[in-house]
Amino acid sequence: MIDRRDPPPIGRVVATEQKPATPHQFHFWTANETTIGIGAIVRVEEQPGNPKGLPNGRGKGETGKVVYGVVTDGFAYSDLATPLHDVVGAEGDPARAAESPTVRQEIRLWTAAVLRQKPEEPLQPVPLGQVHVASDVDVAQALRMDTYLGGAEPTAIPVGLYTSGTLEAPVYLDADFLLGPEAAHLNISGVSGLATKTSAAEFLLGSIFQHFPTHKGRIAAVCFNVKGPDLCFLDQPGALEDEDRRRYERLAVRAQPFERVRYYAPFKADGVNLNTLRTHPDLVGDVEPLVWGLREVLDYAEVLLNRDDIDAKADAFIDFLSDRVVDKDFDDGFGGAHRVVTFADLERLFRSIFDGLELGGGRGDTWRTHHIATIRKVRNRLSNISTRAKGLVTDDGPSNDLPWGRFEDRAVYVVDVANVDPLGQDLVFARVVSKLREHLERRDLGVDAVVVFVDELNKYAPADGPETYVKKMLLDISERGRYLGLVLFGAEQFRSQVHRRVVGNAGTIMFGRMDSDELATPGYQVLSPATKIKLATLPIGELMVRHPHFTQPIFVRFPRPAVLRGRDGVERFPPAADLPFEDAVVRQLVKLDRRVRPNLVKDLIADRREEDVRRALAYTRQTRPQDAFAHFKKQLGGRVAAVPAAARETVAPLNPISDDPY
Ligand SMILES: Nc1ncnc2c1ncn2[C@@H]1O[C@H](COP(=O)(O)OP(=O)(O)OP(=O)(O)O)[C@@H](O)[C@H]1O
Ligand SMILES: [Mg+2]
User: Fold this and answer.
1) What is the tens place of the pLDDT at every residue in 220-260?
2) Among the listed residues 586, 605, 606, the one whose alpha carbon sits nearest the alpha carbon of residue 596
3) pTM over 0.70, yes/no
4) Cα(274) to centroid of ligand 1, in Å?
5) pLDDT tens track for 335-353
6) Which of 5, 145, 189, 535 is the most exposed place for a label (fewest CB within 10 A)?
7) What is the number of the ligand 1 atom nearest to the C-alpha of 566?
8) Which residues surround ligand 2, an ion (CB under 5 A)?
9) Distance between CA 288 and CA 258 in Å, rounded?
C-alpha cells in the first residue's frame, strides 16, 4: 500500500557562503528532536510564488522544483564562539553547567546528497525550500524506481525495506540492470558473520525467482558451495521470526525455501561415498554424484597445466589426444590397436608408446612428432588430476554431469566443491562455467539466464596471486556474461582484495557490516565519514545498496532467508558416517530402484574388484533401468576376481549400454 499522506515539513534548506547548496548537495536544519538520521531520504520543495519560503507556502507547487536527497552527514552546534565560553560560564565545574540560566540555542544541521531533481533540466542548485520526510511514493521517485515498477512490463525485484523513523518503504532493483542486459552482476562484501553476505544472496535469489518478469524468460541458478554446509539445505525451511515474516509480506515475497534444488557432489576417494555434508539418510537421496571421465577432463586440460607449464607443445599433444585418439580406434604405430575411453585405457597407450620407443632403440625421442618429454609431462599432469581429484575424475565407467540442455526454470543447481582439492575445484569451475557459456551462446541450455553464485571471492578471484583458471572464468563472466544472460553473484569479506575487474563490473553492490581498516582503503573515498561510521556499525540484516538507478547508496533491511542455515542443517540432519563400500553400493542401487534387496547386492559383489563394481554401478546409474539389480548384475558380468591385473586386457570388456557413453 502506498502512503499518500503529506506530513508537515521537518526541516528547511539553508545555504551560506561557506556551505552553499549545489546541484548535487545541500544542507538543511531540523528541530533537535527529529527522526532524521544518516541514510534518511528527504524531499525538498521549492515554493512557487513564495520564494522566501514564508508560511502558507506549503503544499506541492505545480511548477516548483522537487529535489530528493539522502542524508550523508549531521552536525550539532550552539551559538558559542569557542568552548572556552562554556567553561567560563560554568565556572569550570561541569556539574554547574546544567544550572546555567540561559539555555543555549542549539541546532541540528544535516548534509544531504541529491538523489534526483524534478524536473531534471535545467540542473540547478537545490532551492531553499522546505524539507519533508520521504513517503513510499517519494522513495520510489527518489530512487528512479518509477521507471521499472510500473508500465506494461515491470522489471522490479524487491531487495529490502528502506527504513527511517516510522516510515518503511520497499526498495526494488531493476532486473534489466541486475541480471542483464543493461548492466549485470552483484557483489556483496562485509565482515564474517555480521555482514550476512551469504544470507543476502539467498534472500535475493528467492526474491528473483518469485519476481523475475515472465517476459524476460526462464531463469536458474548455479551455486558453488565452497564453505562447509553453507548451501546444502536450500530446500529446507529455516527458522523465521515474526519481524522477518512481516518484512516478507511488505516486500511481497513468499517466505519459503527453494522449490527446485538439485545437488551435485563428487565422490570421496573411495568412489562410492559422496563428498558433501548433505549425507543424512533423509536427504542424501537427491544428491547426484558429479563424475567426470577422460573426455570431460581432456576438454579442459589447460586447467591442469599451471602457469609455468604453459607450453604450446603440451597443448598440441593434448589436442592430438583429444581429436585423434580418445573414443576412436587408434593404432599406436608399434603394432598395438587401442580404443581409449578411460584413463586406464590412456595409461595403456602411454605404456605402449614408451615401450615402443625404448625397444625401437635408435628410432629417436619422438612419437608422431611429439617429443617423449612432452608426452611424459602430459601423462604426469593427467595422472595427477586423477589422483588428486579421485572421487571427481573416474576411471570406472561413464560420467554423470549437470543436466546440460535440460535446465529447469527457477531451479537451483548446487555444486558442492567445499571439500574438493583446489585443482579439482579449478576443473569444476572451468567446466561448469564453460558449459553454461557454451549452451547460453547456442540458446539451448533450457533457461534464458543463469545466476552463478560464488562465495569467498577473496579466494577465487584475488586481486593478486597467480592467474588460475577459476579467476579467468570469473573475469570472463564479469566482462562478457551479461550479453549471454550469465550473471555472477559474488561475495567476499574484503572487496579491496578481489580482482578489480570482477568487482568493477558488478552493476549492483551491497555492503554489510564493514571492517574499519577496509573502509580506510582507497575504494571507499567517495563515502562520507558518517556513512563509513554507519557501515562499520551496521546491524545484522541491514545492507547498503548501490544500483545503477540510485544516484547514492541506500540502506535497506532484509528478512532472514527462508531456508535452513548450513550450521542448523548439519545439526538437524547430521551427516552420515561414510558407509563401508558394499553398503554405499547398496544405497546407490536402492536410490535407483527401491526394490533392490541389500543382501543380494552384497552377495553379488563380495570378492569382486571395486573398480568393476564401480563401473557396473556407473553404467546402471547412466541407464536408469526399470530393474536396477538385474541391470547391475548383467553389467558386472561373470566372476573375474581371479584374473590378475596384468592380464586385464585379455578379459572381455564390459558391455557399455550406449555406443558412446560420453
Ligand atoms: N536479515 C537478517 N536478520 C537477522 N539476522 C540475519 C539476517 N540474515 C542473516 N542473519 C544471521 O546472520 C548470521 C550471519 O549470516 P551469514 O552467514 O549470511 O553471514 P556471512 O557474511 O555470509 O558470513 P561469513 O563471511 O562467515 O560467510 C547468521 O547467523 C544469520 O542467521
Ligand atoms: Mg558466508
Assistant:
1) 999 999 999 999 999 999 999 999 999 999 999 999 999 99
2) 586
3) yes
4) 27
5) 888 998 888 888 889 999 9
6) 5
7) 17
8) 197-198
9) 18
